[in-house]
Specification:
Blueprint lengths: L9 H4 L4 H23 L4 H8 L3 H8 L8 H10 L16
């Protein structure tokens, strides 16, 4: 069995461009937070859809991890509708490439 040393995340390991990998990590984190809140409240997909003001198939896409179908702003809006706030931290020490 060949061992693989990870670069930190599956998105890094799959050699996505740096900016794309960051976006995917952010979206994955937001999607996970939404799913956790839905599960915590024991919401059906239909009830979650009503709260999020989306269709039930849209909630299904989220639960099934279809990350390519969601933008960061849409996911933040969904979290807000679930009563969760989102904070953004900007690293001032990072140099522009």
């Amino acid at each position: 069995m060949k061992h693989h040393i990870t670069k930190g995340s599956v998105f890094d390991d799959l050699d996505f461009e740096v900016a794309e990998a960051r976006s995917l990590k952010i979206r994955a984190t937001l999607m996970q937070a939404i799913e956790q809140e839905i599960n915590k409240r024991k919401l059906t997909q239909e009830k979650a859809a009503k709260i999020l003001d989306v269709s039930q198939p849209r909630v299904s896409d989220l639960i099934r991890g279809k990350i390519q179908l969601f933008t960061i702003d849409v996911l933040i809006n969904m979290l807000e509708k679930l009563g969760k706030s989102v904070s953004i931290t900007i690293d001032k020490n990072r140099l522009a490439a």
